Amino acid sequence: MRTHQPDQDVFRSIASEDIVWKQFPAFPPAARLAVVVGDPAKPGPYVVRVKLPGGQKLMPHRHEEDRIYTVMSGVFYIGHGDTFDEDKLQAHAPGSVVVLPGGTPHFHWAKSGEYITQVTALGPITLEYLDPRNDPRNS
After folding, report:
1. How far apart are CA 130 and CA 122, in angstroms?
2. Where are the domains of the chain?
3. Comparing C-alpha atoms, which of 2, 3, 5 is closest to residue 120?
4. For residue range 12-63, what is the model confidence (pLDDT) as tens digits?
5. CATH code of the domain occupying 20-138
């Protein structure tokens, strides 16, 4: 008998209108996260979506897990480095895929308006800000 990955044992489709957006403690208050497949708090595969409203920034941070970002809507601006630097931002249009190795310091900016990305990774989910003062969990 075949063993399936967690939350992948039943055929189903998930419509965009069925996505449930919630605040995520590691994000600025206006940002949202939606769990699409899996449980990102546990070991194993997960798919989440991240929605960042226009003008919002995620300051330099890193994730332990390797991540694959797919831009669903808007323009996803991401830069690499330990400090936020607008000159290092690269714009990625809808349909783009960005591979982010675990441990890579980076930052995001919804520079031209709201964006939604879909993140595929192996949990548990992590997010460590390089400067703890940027971490909303410390407020």
Report:
1. 22
2. 20-138
3. 5
4. 999 999 999 999 999 999 999 999 999 999 999 999 999 999 999 999 999 9
5. 2.60.120.10
